[in-house]
């Protein structure tokens, strides 16, 4: 995602910082104050996705005043039609709000959405759903928030009901994840459990088949039946699934590969696996 054009540190003429977008008068406010109950959404995809999914959770939006292109105008128009106040902040302030993330000249503060956050409740909710909806993704040792964000985006597109990961040695659901997920983390629950092996036993007791992706497996994933109640387990790039977690899986499969590379990035491998599951389940 390309970063928006950089301007000087001072706001453009006629658009004082902290004032309503498109107006020259108003009272400046402190930008982007957040709490543990809010998240920052950086960039067009993340802001637009939340706007369309849950506009009422957006509390404030800040844009860089020198941007006058159609893309920013269209977004501001959507926000204002939804009754959301849009204010300006110079690029230096936006950089600070985004804490190093690419923001393309737009940052929003929104309330954290309340999705199911424990595995027993999730399984209970899925009991009466058709089998095509009972599709979960377990992550073992995925610590990079960029990878998690990409996986959350893929999960939403592929019909995954929830992503489950251990509380330790896993990426948190932070602002970076929210940006990269481009709305996926707003719709797909991310559940962290104390013990991933025990969580596998829980889903197996609920009738799910648990298949791990492992580069040393003998069978190709394309030979597996991925219909019905399903859990796919993905391990961290390089280390893969831990031995104990692997031993709890009902079967192990690999992605067939050519060339000299030893493995794929975990988010890429997850995309391949999830969309093969979607193909079979459609």
Describe the structure.
The structure is a single chain. It is elongated and about 55 Å long. Helix 5 (145-158) crosses helix 6 (175-181) and helix 5 packs parallel to helix 10. The chain folds into two domains: 1-113, Ribosomal protein L30/S12 (60s Ribosomal Protein L30, Chain: A); 119-281, Alpha/beta knot (3-Layer(aba) Sandwich). The strands form two sheets. It has a seven-stranded parallel sheet, sandwiched between helices. It has helices spanning 44-54, 70-81, 91-98, 119-126, 145-158, 175-181, 184-187, 196-205, 243-248, 266-281, and strands at residues 38-42, 58-63, 86-88, 106-111, 135-140, 162-166, 190-193, 209-213, 219-220, 230-235, 251-254. The protein has ten helices and eleven strands. The protein is α/β, with parallel strands linked by helices and 282 residues long. Strand 2, helix 2 and strand 3 form a beta-alpha-beta unit. Helix content is 34%, strand content 18%. The two termini are 30 Å apart. The model is unreliable at 1-16 and 23-35 (pLDDT under 50).
